[in-house]
Amino acid sequence: MNKKFEDVIAEQGRLVYTNEGDSMNPVIREGNLLVLEAVKEPLKVGDVPLYKRDSGQYVLHRIIEIKRGKYTLKGDNRDFIEKGITDKNIIGVLTGIVRNGKTYPVETPREYITRVAMDMIYLVACAVNNTTPELDRINDMDPTELYRLSHAHMLTAAVAFGLEKAIPLPHAFDQAKKKAIRKLTLFELERAAITREFEKAGIWYLPLKGILLKDDYPEFGMREMTDNDILVDNTRMNDIRTIMEGLGYSCDLFEHPAYNHDVYSKPPTLEFEMHHTLFSDIEVPRFVEYYTEILDHLQKNGCERKFSDEDFYVYNLCHTYKHYIHGGTGLRALLDIYVFLRAHPAIDRAYIDAQLEKLQISDFEEKMRCLSQKLFTGSALDEQDKKDLDYLIFSGSKGTVENREYHKMVENLGGDDSKASKRRFIKSRIFITGEALEKQYPFFAKHKALYPILLLYRPFRGVFTHPKGILTEYKKIKDFKKKDES
User: Can you point out the beta strands (E) in 117-221?
Assistant: First the structure.
């Protein structure tokens, strides 16, 4: 008869068993051997104990809170939170995870993903620097999480180019590399057809971002793209729509006031964004002002327009900064910087520094440039580097809702998380005035004598339409703390 887990721990002080289930993914996977020991010191938040529910079910989850001798636990891959667990339920605590014959420490999900990210960066560095990765390090990697994270940062093809220098490509990476090459080939052919039509119609156009950056990468297909971005003559948007639809594209977005581009798509995976401006007022207003006279910055070749290398670098930094201060941006942005600067060693640094100063992003550029150089040359990172890298790793290529909410709150509070600042912001949410009043409630803006009615109407409506939203917003404001980003 098999002994109970608690009996093995009591007799031997140690327990080893095979994990079943996915509640602790990605740190603990199905089939991993788990090493548990008797609890010798008080448990703390972050520990992963094995406990027994009153029903007799064994559970291995992470402690997320301890209050008055009771533990709150949750699976890393679950939303359900379990409260009320006490020491009498605890059988042992996880001390090691055995995977592929190697024992790993018990990490938090954040620590685990950071370690995988460093493996990903290592392989990308091997790809762009044409070096062979070490087999021992590859064998220690988690291919499932490596692929997931590479995909989140749009680096699967680059990782594949690194991996294949040492081993036959795993199926997922092999397919990702082939897909990137096929997609890039299709983009090249389609873009040539589109720009030929622009030339015939006399419409000027400026290729942006990945269309040009891909040429600085050492291998075709190494730089992934989901779409192609092109700045066009914004007086010809209707003509452009006619051309795109004539070429078999569907118009998915056209002259939407919240966007500075129109979107066209064609099966299986082609998407083009036709920009009528480089930036919009709701993104970074000072960038709009800088690029108002964009034609003065461009070189001309027929209808095609081009940035100088220096202006192209500055524009890409602006684009990266826009994402960085809103939802966040991923590690591909660092790789673009590294690859571009290596491919263009003779750029005019004095000119670039002057433009960055005007745009107020000098410190940002220095941070990103230095971090990219350290990461892709294998140099040591200091504590600030690690903090900056952490933000990029957990932003992914598209940013996160949490980052957007955080940066919006910083903006709303003017960077001040004091009680006085929070009170001022709450007051501004209640007593809506100025441009916001004119846009949202034009009737009351026009008839200001009726403004007191609005003050009663808005909270009354809010209580009935979204009471939880009001309470949630109040709690977010009350609990908000500005991060130390020094």
Answer: 205-207
For the chain, how many residues are written?
Answer: 486
The answer to whether the bond into 143 is cis (omega within 30° of 0) is no
Nearest to 209 by CA among 194, 197, 191: 191
pLDDT at 412: 60
CATH 2.10.109.10 is held by the domain 5-106: yes
How many alpha carbons lie under 13 Å from residue 130 in its C-beta half-sphere?
A: 4
Q: What is the pLDDT of residues 444-456, one digit of tens each?
A: 788 888 778 877 7
Question: Given this model, what pLDDT does residue 454 score?
Answer: 74
Contact 322, 399 (CB under 8 A): no
Verdict on whether the full-model pTM lies above 0.70: yes
Q: How far apart are CA 408 and CA 402, in angstroms?
A: 10
Q: How far apart are CA 50 and CA 36, in angstroms?
A: 8
Determine the distance from the C-alpha atom of residue 360 to the mean position of all C-alpha atoms in its chain, rounded to a whole number.
Answer: 23
Strands 270-275 and 228-232: parallel
Q: Is the pLDDT of residue 485 over 60?
A: no
Residue 385 makes CB contacts below 8 A (sequence gap 6+) with 370, 371, 374
How far is the CA of 70 from the CAs of 61, 82, 86, 88, 301, in angstroms?
14, 11, 5, 10, 71
How far is residue 62 from each of residues 94, 144, 227, 473, measured CA to CA in Å? 10, 22, 40, 29
Do residues 92 and 80 lie in contact, with contact meaning Cβ atoms separated by under 8 Å?
A: no
Helix residue ranges per DSSP H, 279-433:
285-290, 309-324, 331-343, 349-359, 362-377, 383-393, 401-412, 419-430
Confidence of residue 405 (pLDDT cuts 50, 70, 90): low
- The domain limits of the chain are 5-106, 114-403, 413-479
pLDDT digits (tens, 9 = 90+) for 355-379: 999 999 999 999 999 999 999 999 9
CA distance 232 to 197: 13
Residue pair 325/359 in contact by the 8 Å Cβ criterion = no
Residue 439 in tokens: 């846009």
pLDDT tens profile 306-320: 999 999 999 999 999
Phi, psi of 481 (to 5 degrees): -130, 130
C-alpha distances out from residue 272 to 158, 201, 210, Å: 23, 18, 12
Q: Is 28 helix (H, G, I), strand (E, B) or coil?
A: coil
